[in-house]
UniProtKB/TrEMBL annotation:
InterPro entries named in the record: Methyltransf_11, Methyltransf_Superfamily, SAM-dependent_MTases_sf
GO MF annotation list: S-adenosylmethionine-dependent methyltransferase activity
SUPFAM superfamilies named in the record: S-adenosyl-L-methionine-dependent methyltransferases
Entry's Gene Ontology BP terms: methylation
Name of the protein this chain belongs to: Methyltransferase domain-containing protein
A Pfam family assignment: Methyltransf_11
Organism of origin: Bradyrhizobium brasilense
Methyltransferase type domain: residues covered: 45-138
């Protein structure tokens, strides 16, 4: 992850967590998960932040664990949700997570925080985690024009969706849409990719 972004999340983890948990529930995301994810399947949230989606996944029949690069956010997640497992892992390496470990992989609003050179290998890596027959949900905040940073110093990379699609060329794209998030109110691009059985 971009170092300034990671530093911002570590430094202001409690404030970010409070903001995210105060937002409306992401009902649009939840509907998509319910439609495409494998019920009862092992589920990973890559870039889980303060754990809101991990808690929802576990409560709704998708046994989930969370992974994040920010120790500050992981501390928030563990304090809020003591039962699920939360582990530090950073894109693109995601060290310690074996390929084909999960039926469902969620990676929500993470890849836009990466340097351009890391976006393609990160997309490849999250798809590698999916078992044959499994599903990846991937989305990111859309930035038009040039890369931008917010008041906290977080990077929002501007990149073409074709970059992501090319890394998922072997996948079956089940959903590919640019929408306004029900939770954050920001423009996001969503992809749901299925991995065929070999």
């Amino acid at each position: 992850m971009d170092r300034a972004t990671l530093a911002a999340y570590d430094k202001e983890a409690a404030a970010f967590a409070q903001d995210w948990h105060g937002q409306p529930a992401p009902v649009d995301l939840q509907e998509i998960v319910g439609q495409f994810f494998i019920k009862g399947g092992a589920t990973a949230d890559i870039g889980c932040g303060s754990g809101r989606e991990v808690a929802w996944l576990n409560a709704n029949g998708f046994p989930a664990e969370g992974f994040d690069a920010s120790e500050g956010l992981l501390a928030e997640a563990r304090a809020r949700y003591p039962a699920p497992r939360f582990t530090r892992a950073e894109l693109p390496a995601l060290s310690g997570i074996a390929a084909g470990s999960f039926d469902n992989v969620l990676c929500e609003t993470v890849i836009m925080h990466l340097d351009h050179a890391l976006i393609a290998p990160s997309v490849r890596r999250v798809f590698e985690l999916v078992r044959p027959g499994g599903v990846l949900y991937l989305n990111w905040r859309v930035t038009t024009g040039d890369d931008a940073r917010d008041a906290h110093g977080r990077l929002y990379a501007a990149f073409d969706t074709a970059l992501v699609r090319s890394e998922l060329a072997a996948a079956e794209l089940l959903l590919d849409a640019e929408v306004v998030s029900a939770s954050s109110g920001k423009v996001i691009h969503r992809l749901v990719a299925g991995k065929g059985r070999r």
